[in-house]
Amino acid sequence: YPVRLENDLEVMFTGVDIDVVSRGVPGEAGLGACTRMKREVAEVKPDLVLWQVGTNDAIRHVDLDGFKDCLRRTLTWLRDNKFDVVLVDPQYSDALVKDAFYFETVAAVAEVAREMRVLLVDRFEAMRELSAQRGDGFYLTSDNLHLNDNGHRCMAEQLTRAIVAGLREMLALTKRK
Predict the structure, then answer these.
(1) Cα–Cα dist 173/37, whole Å
(2) What is the CA angle 54-63-61, rounded to 5?
(3) Secondary structure string (H, E, C) spanning 27-90
(4) Closest CA relative to residue 53, chosen from 67, 40, 43, 66
(5) Of 136, 116, 111, 131, nearest to 54 (Cα)?
(6) How far is 169 from 86, CA to CA, in rounded Å?
(7) What is the mean pLDDT of each run of 10 residues along the chain (177 residues)?
(8) Radius of gyration from C-alpha coordinates of the chain
(9) Torsion on CA atoms 69, 115, 95, 155, rounded to nearest 10
(10) Which residues contact 151 (CB under 8 A, 6 or more apart)?
(11) Listed residue (42, 106, 54, 111) closest to 78, CA to CA
(12) Which residue in 16, 36, 109, 160 could disulfide with 8, CB within 3.0 to 4.6 Å?
């Protein structure tokens, strides 16, 4: 979805050249991302960091306290270094939610986002609603885990809406001050 996101954002912000750089590593858990992210963000110096986190952690049943601590430390580092962040919580599929731990991981990401005052894109709920309406096959490949073309389109649209809404809110707060 990064290419679609870049195109959608450039449509929303006419005349602004936007580059979406995808540095995600397939199958990586949060702890690996926490370690790698600081180095890569410092190198790229993006205006905004979109951090999609938690799916692989939930599948692997990582220690939730360690997971949340990792998120907090990395989000603190990003804030201290003046990087804006949007967290994207774990995805939904009927197969994934058969495990109760999966819900705990989704809740952990939301808890840390609230605590750290970071915008959270609730991918889990959006995908659950879409699944109820259309079934998982509408947006997932046959492995019931990875996004298909519809899933990438929906993800880019959801992120675009969240980023635009976040910017509008930030501008409104700036005007009030």
Answers:
(1) 29
(2) 60
(3) CCCHHHHHHHHHHHHHHHCCCEEEEECCHHHHHHCCCHHHHHHHHHHHHHHHHHCCCEEEEECC
(4) 67
(5) 111
(6) 14
(7) 86 86 78 85 90 93 95 95 93 91 96 95 92 90 88 90 83 72
(8) 16
(9) -110
(10) 1, 138, 139, 140
(11) 42
(12) 160
Long-range CB contacts (within 8 A, 24+) of 62-69: 62/29, 62/30, 62/31, 64/104, 64/105, 64/108, 66/31, 67/30, 67/31, 67/105, 67/108, 68/108, 68/111, 68/112
Find tokens 């490949």 and name the residue: 141
Nearest to 59 by CA among 27, 36, 87, 83: 27
Burial 14-31 (b: 16+ CB within 10 A, else e): eeeebebeeeeeeeebbb
Q: How far apart are CA 171 and CA 166, in angstroms?
A: 9
Q: Please, what's the b/e burial string for 113-135 (b: 16 or more CB within 10 A of its CB; e: otherwise)? A: beebebbbbbbbebbbebbeeee
**Complete DSSP assignment for 95-134:** TGGGSHHHHHHHHHHHHHHHHHT-EEE-HHHHHHHHHHHH
Q: Which helix (H) or strand (E) holds 1?
A: none
| pLDDT of res. 177 | 66
Provide the residue type at 164 as one letter: V
